[in-house]
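#onboarding

Welcome to the new folks! Below is a worked example of what a typical request in this channel looks like: someone posts a single protein sequence, and someone else replies with the predicted structure as tokens. Don't worry about understanding the tokens yet, we'll cover that in week two.

Example request:
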Amino acid sequence: MRVGIIGPTNIDGTARAAGVDPTAVEQAARAAGRDLAVRGHDVVVVPDRGVALLAAEEYRRAGGQHLIGVIPHGGTSAQAATSCCEAHRNLCHATVEDLTWAGQHERICQLSDVLLCIGLSCGTLSEIAWTKWVGDTPVIIVKYLVSGIPPEMGAETDLRWVDSLEDAYRLLDGHTGVNRAGVGTPRSDSRSPGHLHSA
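Example response:
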């Protein structure tokens, strides 16, 4: 199964604003990368900074076999000036690069069977919102790492709230009765957008 890992690049600022310990977000990101590698899942990230980078590093360190990097090019001058994706492309087994920063939210949803949300930011909320239009991709949200999601978003997206990463893994591994909207069913190759470049 392809698991897209989403969360803030600015862990310290967003976590503190939510009243969450930034260290807890960092630890969860690292643990998710490591554990998903050990469980044999493919992982999709935007290998920039923050949650995605921490997860990607641990995924590779733990012997993960297929890390897909979504590497946007272009966008606002601020996005281009602050992006670290090029510096971290070496972590990825394959990359998708035929997009701008404005298109990366949609693309990570298209490439993933499910999204794992570890903390929130404006970008993370955008990725969650895009699941509405991209096959209703399920989003697993670790409760203790976020302040909440607007109920309006919850009404139009497939959100799965969990108390821990272990609960998230149970959903991914199909050990519960929850299997709505494709969790546990890999996305068919015909829906795989863009061209994957081998690293």
